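Input.
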Amino acid sequence: MMKFLRLYKILVTFKAYQLAELLPKSVYSTKFKSLLGLLFWVRKRAKNKASGERLKLALQELGPIWIKFGQMLSTRRDLLPDDVACELAMLQDQVPAFDGLVAKKIIEQALDCPIEQHFADFDPIALASASIAQVHCATLKQSGAKIVIKVLRPNLMPIINADIAVMYWLAQQSEKYLPDGKRLRAAEVVSDYEITILKELNLLQEAENTRRLRNNFINSDMLYIPYVYPELCRKNILVEERIMGIPIADIAQLKANNVNLKLLAERGVNVFFTQVFRDNFFHADMHPGNIFIDAKVPVDPRYIGIDCAIVGELSREDQRFLAQNFIAFFNRDYQTIAQLYISSSWVPENTDALALEAAMRTVCEPIFAKPLGEISFAQVLFNLFKVARQFEMVIQPQLVLLEKTLFYIEGLGRQLYPQLDLWSTAKPFLESWYQEQISVKHITKQFIDTLPQWQEVLPDLPNKIKQYQKDNQQLMLQVAKLNKQLATTTRKQTRLWQLTIGLVVIVTILSFLLH
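Output.
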């Protein structure tokens, strides 16, 4: 029942803020507008506001999950009008804050002591406020270090649970009624998102994610991750080093500081691919509110990443497939792409490889007719989904986070340096990574890394072989016994058939003689 009340709230909000007019024209949007038209009693709100502001207000009213959707959209200025993107950008760190005194009380309850015991100069006015939490400045009493305290918003779970229930219901309906519903595996995507959002509500998990990312980029000239104070972190509060930098969305300030924007954009791409392929552990919430720029040396700028609540990891198979797939796209090798999709079971194994290759070529070649710097990865994905519908490709839920992160990176890169050539920036990295994976050195390292496992297995290997031989002998005896029983049964059945046939013949002869 709760999910239907929440669904009603969502529809009422869309109707009140006149959001249907923002939808592109299609059969589905026409049906959706007709559905909203039935809510004739809902009064318009913010009717004199611009469409971007109405969208922002509606998402704020609907809560955390919808705000996060707006954050993702805000990075795609190549897909949205500037006025809409600017309004949505405010969702990154300018969501209305809750009372600072409530935040102080939450901190004291979490640490089970007065706030003054650990912190001085606690500022009850939030430095930044987003969908899940807000941040307050303070100073560590013991060391005098400048820190920030992240505090979860109170009473989030009822809204989140209701939204997740709605998403599951919509996923089920899509699988029932949409032509591509089952292929899209919407329920699995929602399940993955549910796991992600619940992890984001555990700040102890975020503290651990931050520690891992920091260790991966220690002494890096591309990315800096702040230090976390784990002894002061709890499930609903996180204490970390306060960083100073220029918000990545403040292009004017970056230009005023003579920051090398081309290098910065290219480093953003390299940071992404390094996390995905070298570390297999990537920051999956890289919207502008979470990224700052260290511009102390403008010709050698460095990213500063915060809010590591959402991270992603891929299997070795997914890593290898993606690297090969990207490289094949860069080389316009559609035959390899088709073979990869079939061998990885992303399309049915009986798929016509030549037809798939031809379809890939048809949708991708017009894109490559543009200068590389103008090619949008979003457009590539859009065209690939056309192919997916034709060949029943199964959407992989584990790659949704990766796709979202790549959208972020491309959007940020285009803001910094509109001529960013995402493809040529990524290609050398991926080719180098893939060659390293198949090198003798890497294979030798993998063998050495597995030696401890072999050391555990080898001492018991003779016993395991003996047990295997014993089990095998028992199995062979059982098979022989079964064959013997089968032969006996077959002989009995043969005799029975012979007897039956004999009786039939005798009866037939007697019948003939009697007549």
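Confidence is low (pLDDT under 50) at residues 503-515.
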